[in-house]
Amino acid sequence: MMTNTTMSVEERLDYFVNNYDLIAAGVYSKGPEKIIKTDAIKKCRFCKKNESETNFTNTAHAIPECLGNHQLVLSEECDSCNKFFSENLEVHLDKYTRPFRVMGQIHGKRGVPNYQSNNQKSKVKHGEIPAFVSPATEKFFTIDKENKTATVNFHREPYIPLGVYKALVKIALSTIENKEELSAFSETIGWLMCADQTKSVIKPAVVIETFIPGPRPTCGVAVSLFRRKPSCASKPYAIFMIAFGNIAMQLIVPSILDRTTLTTRCIAFPTPFELCGWPFGQPRTYNKDMSGTEKRKEDYLIEYSFDDIEAIPPDSIDPELYSK
Ligand SMILES: [Zn+2]
Q1: b/e for 258-280, b at 16 or more Cβ within 10 A?
Q2: What are the CA-CA distances from residue 180 to residues 2, 39, 265, 320 (Å)?
Q3: Is 105:245 a contact under the CB 8 Å cutoff?
Q4: CA 9 to centroid of ligand 1, rounded, Å
Q5: How many angstroms does the Cα of residue 136 sit away from the middle of ligand 1?
Q6: Measured distance CA(100)–CA(158) in Å, rounded
Q7: How many alpha carbons lie under 13 Å from residue 145 in its C-beta half-sphere?
Q8: Which of 287, 248, 301, 225 is nearest to 72 (CA)?
Q9: Paired residues of 206 in beta bridges
Q10: Coil, helix or strand at residue 213
Q11: What is the pLDDT of residues 124-133, one digit of tens each?
């Protein structure tokens, strides 16, 4: 997939306005539940089983709670599909997005996630103010006094890239309210539910990631699902955007209607921060290839800027910060 960064913000916006319709969108956080309802006969939109064939006891969040959604609930997801997705797909999304969630202080089911390095020596704890604790020998952060930046080196727990991609596709399909839109994705659903995690229907599977600097640019989690207009058959059928904390992710949602037309070229949707000018610096957009089906280990560097830095005696630090 290529992103066309030579296009201006206005040109990219026009591209979406001219070629796509928005079929699902919202911003979710804490607050009243919003339920995506079922038809008269309750049926799981993934396995197609009804209430006499499967159970619907658990609350299935259309967007995982770990990303900050405590509102949008999908009633068309049965317990066994919910379990399957959580164990096979969301587990990779959880590992991949953890540094983003620590950085963006995203409230999941059990509050903002803390962080601990593999050897347990470096930690990030979220109390009243976030505390980064690490012995100097660990090189968990690098401080650049001249440029007033601190770079933090997060380890990601090993994750399967294609699992992350599939988890995002699953979220996209969970946000659709108009059931007529689902028929274009019946094969995609089959792929999501396939136990063989090495199969792919999109190659390369690329996520366009945008890092937006500054304090929590997106409150809650924002989603938009675009479906091409009938006259635009040469474009990818569906494109999904999801943003939380400092990160926005965009990807193609594969459809059977892409079969003859699928181009993996995708134009980056301009974030609101590019459109209106953002005082904390320019958002940075890059492509991330998520086609891999083997576990990937990597570090994720986050740069923080500061106004002032001060050394304090070690015995003045709350010992609680060192404890588990
Ligand atoms: Zn099901």
Answers
A1: beeebeeebbbbbbebbeeebee
A2: 30, 12, 26, 54
A3: yes
A4: 40
A5: 50
A6: 15
A7: 3
A8: 225
A9: 289
A10: coil
A11: 887 777 788 8
Confidence of residue 1 (pLDDT cuts 50, 70, 90): very low
Q: Tell how far the Cα of 298 is from the centroid of ligand 1, in angstroms.
A: 33
State the distance from the centre of ligand 1 to the C-alpha of 62, rounded, in angstroms: 13
Helical pair 91-104 and 161-174, crossing angle rounded to 10 deg: 80
Q: Which of 7-11, 112-116, 229-233, 311-315 has the lowest mean pLDDT?
A: 311-315
Dig out the tokens for 274 from the structure: 């590019």
The two structure tokens encoding residue 234? 């040469």
Give the span between the Cα atoms of 113 and 124, in whole angstroms. 9
CA of 46 to the centre of ligand 1 (A): 5
Look-up of token digits 């500061």: 306
Q: How far is the CA of 51 from the centre of ligand 1 (A)?
A: 10
